[in-house]
From TrEMBL:
Keywords: TPR repeat. InterPro entries: TPR-like_helical_dom_sf (IPR011990), TPR_rpt (IPR019734). This is Tetratricopeptide repeat protein. The lineage of its organism: Bacteria, Pseudomonadati, Myxococcota, Polyangia, Polyangiales. Residues 349-407 are annotated as: Disordered. TPR repeats lie at residues 14-47. It comes from the Bacteria.
Length: 562
């Protein structure tokens, strides 16, 4: 039945696919018709009619694709013409017009690619060559053409890079060398030259933070520390090409010259007191042992369980004795029933031996049958009594084992009680009160930063910026015999002038670096602005130069992609 239903379902699906294909064929939609006929062949691969109609639809598809390919070729749509002709030849391999259309479209693609290559339109030529390879991955001529175009692109890009490098347009040279690597990885020495030019361009783009000798101020120690720390600073991800120096930067270098001056350091010292407490062991007390009470309770409970088990065992023993008496009574009854059955059996045999008619021995026969039933009932009651005795004896054995286990537990509990002392020594905890002095030292000054952007005529002095620092410590006297944390005391650690100056210098450096990031961000943005301006003006080389410089100073050049 299952197979029949399945076959019926397949038959209906095949018929519907064929009907839909016929409908699309009458409408001239050969693509849809071929799809339905192909579905029918998958449903029933052995059906010749579906194969025939599919082949007919494929021929129509091939004819239509051939016409469309010729029309696209006449319009100059070379890639479209090539793929349409390819499809036409695949739909109907014996269609010679489709084969000729494919040959004509391929020849036109190759011819146009050569023309574009000769006129310097490398990208367009490469697109056509790759279309031919995509159309037929085994087309060796297309592979050769693509290789020639890539070689030409790499050569032209290499020559452009050398030209840009000679003209000092290092950004354009870097882009050209990247085009070389994208076209032909490992071409000549392009990678090495590109790296050399990129390093030279990064040196050219270096943003210099020139640290001038600190002014003679009232906080000269802080000034010297700030200058020393800034000179050790290396630019991070926010300032890729920053270098700090005390030397004169190269001519025409970008950057800023700064001089930090600090006002007099104002110091403060505040003291506050605080009461604290701690706990310590100040003696011992003898107290009742909680473990002894627990052990006593365990002995009582173990004794109770043992007594209960003994009572259950006695009760089980009595039940066993009753079961034995019941079995003895059942056995005696069974024996009497067997004797009666045997006696009546002899009487029946004697009656039948006199050769009387069977009806004359009916009384003896009925009495024998009754005796046999009585014997069977007595036998059944004896078997039940035996099983009941076996069960009761097992219960009695289990009860005796329970008594033994509970007595062992009781003995262990008594032994544990004997080992447990009635009292224990407990630490006496006392509270100690003590005082703590909290010392807070504060220091404040102000940073006056004089900045001179390299290349500008005048320097500017930024508004004074307050800088503060705080340090805290606590102290208390030593007290022996009390809490461990106060036994040694806590001496006061007063911050030195050098410590305070170092803390102020650290905060000043943080502020100065923040300002440097602002200057550097403006420097990076200037190249982005140059790129936008030059691009709007249509000056491509100048726009590219600015964009490369923006990338090198900011996020960095992206990886090369094919």
């Amino acid at each position: 039945m299952s197979l029949a239903l399945s076959a019926a379902g397949c038959g209906r699906a095949y018929k519907r696919a064929m009907e839909r294909g016929d409908t699309f064929a009458r409408a001239g939609d050969w693509d849809a018709a071929a799809a339905e006929y192909e579905r029918a062949t998958r449903i029933d691969p052995d059906e010749a009619e579906a194969q025939r109609r599919l082949a007919s639809a494929r021929r129509k598809q091939s004819e239509a694709r051939t016409v469309e390919s010729r029309e696209a070729l006449s319009r100059g749509e070379l890639e479209k013409a090539l793929f349409l002709a390819r499809d036409a030849a695949l739909f109907d391999p014996v269609n010679q017009e489709a084969r000729r259309a494919y040959v004509e479209a391929r020849a036109a693609v190759f011819k146009r690619a050569e023309e574009l290559l000769a006129s310097g339109h490398d990208d367009a030529a490469l697109a056509l060559a790759r279309a031919a390879r995509k159309c037929d991955p085994n087309d060796q001529a297309a592979a050769v053409l693509e290789g020639r175009i890539l070689d030409r692109m790499a050569t032209r890009a290499y020559d452009r890079a050398l030209k840009y490098a000679a003209e000092g347009k290092r950004g354009n040279a870097v882009l050209a060398f990247r085009d070389v690597e994208a076209a032909r990885p490992g071409f000549r020495d392009a990678k090495q030259r590109a790296e050399e030019i990129r390093r030279a361009l990064e040196d050219e783009l270096r943003f210099y933070l020139v640290i001038e000798k600190p002014a003679d101020t009232k906080a000269s120690g802080v000034s010297a520390l700030v200058a020393s720390e800034l000179l050790r600073w290396k630019g991070d991800s926010r300032a890729r090409l920053v270098v700090a120096t005390a030397q004169e930067p190269p001519p025409n270098a970008a950057g800023v010259r700064i001089q930090a001056a600090f006002d007099t350091i104002n110091r403060g010292h505040d003291v506050a007191t605080q009461a604290r407490t701690c706990d310590y062991v100040c003696g011992t007390d003898r107290l009742p042992n909680p473990a002894y009470d627990a052990a006593s309770r365990e002995v009582d409970e173990a004794e109770r369980r043992a007594r209960t088990a003994e009572s259950n065992a006695r009760r089980a023993k009595k039940i066993v004795e009753d079961a034995r008496r019941a079995l003895s009574f059942a056995t005696n009854a069974h024996d009497r029933a067997k004797a009666d059955e045997k006696r009546l059996d002899r009487e029946l045999d004697q009656c039948r031996a006199t050769q009387k008619p069977p009806a004359d021995c009916k009384v003896e026969s009925d009495r024998y049958d009754e005796a046999r039933r009585a014997r069977r009932d007595a036998e059944t009651r004896e078997d039940e009594a035996k099983r009941e005795l076996d069960r009761r004896e097992q219960e009695f054995t289990d009860a005796q084992q329970k008594v033994s286990n509970e007595r062992d537990t009781w003995d262990r509990a008594v032994a544990e009680l004997r080992r447990t002392p009635t009292t224990v020594l407990v630490d006496r905890i006392c509270t100690h009160n003590y005082g703590v002095e909290l010392h807070t030292w504060s220091a404040a000054t102000s940073l006056a930063l004089r900045a001179h952007v390299l290349g500008d005529a005048n320097a500017v002095t930024l508004p004074p910026d307050p800088i503060t620092t705080r340090a805290t410590d606590e102290t208390f006297r030593a007290e022996s015999g009390r809490c461990r944390e106060v036994a040694a005391g806590d001496p006061l650690r007063v911050p030195s002038d050098a410590d305070i100056e170092a803390a102020l210098a650290t905060r000043a450096v943080e502020k100065i670096r923040g300002q440097v990031f602002v200057w550097y961000a403006g420097y990076v943005q200037s190249y982005a602005d140059d790129h936008a301006r030059e691009k709007a003006a249509g000056r491509t080389e100048e726009a590219n130069e600015a964009w490369v410089r923006h990338l090198l100073t900011g996020p960095g050049l992206p990886p090369i992609g094919r």
